[in-house]
Design brief:
Rossmann fold
Length: about 280
């Protein structure tokens, strides 16, 4: 991915955003990346917090200091371990759109964003802003739940649907896995056991295997009577996967996994990050 790898981490100082920042810094160490911490200032939000500070000057100064403190902490911890640099940026506007526009402007390679995850107060697995970023971004995005504290990923679970994009995406996953000596499970989940799935699985393995020199790769075909999302959740838990990976280009499959109705049923997002690959 080159030596100019750039990671963008939008932050609102919440616990889940701070977890995302830790992931961004740790991944940045491996890629020798430039890390940019972004805070998008929403006037309506800070006016609600500080009704007497209509100009926003005091609030902005306070945010700048908080960002500098985070920057100093990241530099102290991650610069000696390979992170190339860490910058902080404050913008004003609609959070999702401003983040996505800025990510394009700086040619970011990866967006790392936090999410509250599913809890008793939320009907969707990912928070509304995080899910919008996932759906609207043209760049790879790593979504980190509030309870997902960074640890070396022992296993990555790649959800495959036997499409051409899998080949390029898997190469990207292998590069990531190499940094951490992670095992990779390339998993296809089916709603029923069919001969055609077994044939497709065999063909995929035969096509991909010769191009992969990484040894820690497993090819798995699983069928579940329940919907695909629940099947994938079940596999992720049983296999003790640390990060779920998928490709959003395969629109139908992505929608089946992360449509609103299915997402409400999935519990893995309480603790497991999701890496959505958008480019190859």
């Amino acid at each position: 991915m080159g030596t100019n790898f750039t990671i963008l981490c939008p932050i609102d100082f919440s616990e889940c955003a701070l977890n995302a920042l830790e992931y961004a810094a740790k991944v940045g160490e491996k890629y020798k990346a430039k890390l940019i911490i972004l805070h998008v200032l929403n006037k309506k939000d800070f006016q609600n917090l500080s009704p007497l500070d209509l100009s926003g000057i005091v609030q902005k100064e306070f945010l700048e200091q908080k960002l500098r403190n985070l920057q100093e902490a990241v530099l102290k911890e991650s610069l000696p371990k390979g992170l190339k640099s860490c910058e902080v940026v404050i913008l004003e506007g609609a959070i999702v759109q401003a983040t996505l526009d800025f990510s394009q402007k700086i040619n970011a390679n990866l967006i790392v964003v936090g999410t509250e995850g599913m809890n008793d107060f939320k009907k969707q697995v990912v928070g509304s802003r995080s899910s919008k970023m996932v759906m609207q971004s043209d760049l790879d995005i790593l979504v980190v739940p509030r309870k997902a504290f960074f640890k070396r990923p022992r296993k990555l679970v790649y959800a495959s649907n036997y499409v051409e994009e899998d080949k390029g995406a898997i190469k990207k996953v292998i590069q990531f896995a190499t940094f951490f000596d992670s095992e990779i499970d390339i998993v296809h989940v089916s709603s029923r056991s069919r001969l055609i799935d077994k044939a497709l699985h065999k063909t995929m393995v035969e096509e991909i295997k010769p191009a992969i020199s990484y040894e820690l790769v497993n090819y798995v075909l699983k069928s579940f009577r329940d919907d695909l999302a629940l099947g994938l959740e079940n596999y992720l838990q049983l296999a003790k996967g640390d990060i779920l990976v998928t490709v959003s280009k395969k629109k139908d499959f992505f929608d089946q996994l992360f449509s609103k109705n299915l997402s409400r049923k999935m519990s893995y997002f309480i603790t497991k990050p999701l890496w959505v690959i958008k480019s190859y």
